[in-house]
Amino acid sequence: MKSSLKHLSAGALVLAALNQVHAQYTPPPPPLPFQGFVNEALRAKDPYANMWDFGGDLRLRYQANESYGIAGTANSVDFRQTGARVNNEYYLLRTTFHVGYTDKWWSVYVEPRSSIAKSDLRAAYANVPAIPGTTKYVGDGPESDTLDLHQAYFTLGNHKEFPLSLKVGRQELSYGDERLVGAVAWNNIGREFDAVKLRWQNEWFAADFFSSLTVVPEDQKFDNSNTRDSLSGIYVTSLKIPKTILEGYFFARNAGRGAINNEPSPQFPQPTARDIYTVGGRLKNKLNEIGNFDYTIEGAYQFGDFASTATGARLRQDAFMFVLSGGYTFADLWATPRLGLEYAYGSGDDYNGKGDGVHGTFDNLFPTNHKFYGYMDFASLQNLQDVRAIFQLKPTTRSSVSLEGHGFWLANKNDSFYNVGGGARATGGYAVNSTRGNFLGTEIDLIGGYALTRNSVLEAGYGHFYTGEYIDKSVTGGSTDADWVYVQTTIKF
Question: Against a cut of 0.85, is the pTM above it?
């Protein structure tokens, strides 16, 4: 029994490496390992100091968005050509510091965070359309949260000795590729949950059982959880199938009528009422075990109920998604180029005035959409078809480059075009109109990074979105293409 547990624990340690995501840009690794300046100093003097963990990081980003809707600015919507301000340049600074302690059977971890934004024209909470019980708040924008608690949790257990462990407190939740539940690390604030998580590991599988409340960022206030918006679930991973990672999951998203205005000035959208249950699975190759090929297959189905407005009737949820992704790495060529192709589908609603009582739009839950549906962040996996082509290079051990192209279509012309946060575009000419066609447009992204030192990375990226028929026929005042640029440096300490 004990030898099996030890074998499983070792397998769990390499699971993160096996579960790499090939389908998006990743920063280059540092030239040498870096444990943190304080950790290195302490551990050099005392070998028992490795029970402690002190460290953090500082990330500074300049970002310029052209032809983007600016929340809180009248008539400003994505891709508008004239009649409103649609260009926004701003700076983001995120600083974290953590302290952790790990004993044989328990550990504790605390991580405060500072998220600062400057020159951002977006309102932190635009309150459009107005929701009773909430208040418009401009502040420094939706990615400013000057000082708050990102994580603070306690764990109990030791998987080398016993199959069960418990983790309680404020924490990130991240599963699979983060298409449905992720930490949104690109965002200056990120995402946290106040959660209880029980993990069961044996030689056949590892399973998480969790229940959580979503944390709602509010600048100049302590971030509280939305007591009427919960996410619970089971996520199971098995490595027993040769050359394969097999995952299965069940998520329950439950939001009451009061969830939409639980906090008065949220910087993330609060949901309408819903009880949505998602059952799905994911199949992926283990790293380097099918030669130079890689693949991912994922699918999920949703049932339950959903209310589209604060007071609207609950409709029966009947929605689904699936993703097919594959690639090949030319390991013997310079820069080890990888070519990849992906198709992602999130169902839309076929209401079209039928009054059938069914809601067919897939609920994207709590994803990290920045990774998948264009780095310009215009879309989510809701009423969407996305064909994605990927070309990746690693010119040196310190550098990585990714060139990607997307073609976007609505999955159903009788439904809306949803933004990256999951909201339906319904102003500035956008609406449900089946005569506009379903082609949204194409996007080209170029991202690159270089590891300057063992504790710092420089990144830069550019994206251009070419509008399609749906957008061109929708936007009031005429449409135009969009551009996006960012330069970012991350320093660990």
Answer: yes
